[in-house]
């Protein structure tokens, strides 16, 4: 009788494992888990960005010496980097005017890698009016702790306003 119960149990398990309903339930559960993971990742990213925005606003006067209430931009500033021109160098920080016209304090540490195009560079190469890309992590003081600072070449002059572009080009004449 013991063998008969075991054989019956094996048949039931085989029927359940081959069941379409079980596969639908497993796939549905997998989809729900994937949706939850994506939703949770969005919450974490949003929280991180909002925390940086709050810290940036809370420490604005300390970082930039402003007095009175600060004016937070409509969107939160990018917490993980900056792209723009260096406007002030005060070791171990630089202030970068980002492309959205916000001023960001960038903290340079011993682990910060500084590159000029593909070559290694140093903090001596970080001077005002230099165009840089900064990648890093926000800290509780509203600063960006730089992991990588890449010094970019100066942008080319505007071609529409150069004297060479106002000179008419000679036309080709063809002879028959």
- Considering DSSP H and I runs of 4 or more, what fraction of the residues is helical? 25-40%
Mean pLDDT: 78
Listing every helix as H and every strand as E from the N terminus to the C terminus, the arrangement reads HHHEEEEEEEH
Can you count the beta strands? 7
N-to-C CA distance:
111 Å
| Main beta sheet strand tally, sense and closure | 5 strands, mixed, barrel
Q: In which order are the strands of the major sheet placed? A: 1-2-3-7-6
> How many domains is the backbone divided into?
1
- The CATH topology name reads OB fold (Dihydrolipoamide Acetyltransferase, E2P)
Radius of gyration from the CA trace? 30 Å
CATH architecture: Beta Barrel
CATH C-level name: Mainly Beta
The coarse overall form would be elongated
From the structure above, extract its key features.
176 residues; alpha+beta; OB fold (Dihydrolipoamide Acetyltransferase, E2P); five-stranded mixed β-barrel; 7 strands; disordered C terminus
């Amino acid at each position: 009788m013991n063998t008969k119960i075991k054989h019956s149990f094996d048949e039931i398990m085989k029927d359940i494992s081959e069941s379409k309903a079980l596969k639908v339930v497993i796939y549905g559960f997998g989809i729900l888990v994937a949706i939850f993971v994506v939703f949770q990742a969005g919450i974490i990213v949003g929280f991180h960005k909002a925390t940086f925005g709050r810290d940036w606003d809370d420490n604005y006067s300390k970082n930039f010496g402003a007095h009175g209430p600060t004016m937070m931009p409509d969107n939160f500033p990018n917490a993980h980097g900056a792209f723009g021109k260096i406007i002030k160098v005060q070791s171990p920080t630089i202030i970068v005017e980002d492309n959205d016209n916000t001023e960001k304090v960038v903290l340079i540490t011993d682990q910060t890698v500084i590159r000029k195009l593909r070559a290694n560079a140093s903090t001596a190469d970080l001077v005002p009016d230099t165009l840089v890309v900064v990648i890093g992590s926000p800290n509780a003081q509203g600063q960006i702790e730089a992991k990588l600072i890449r010094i970019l070449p100066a942008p080319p002059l505007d071609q529409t306003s150069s004297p060479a572009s106002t000179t008419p080009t000679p036309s080709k004449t063809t002879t028959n």
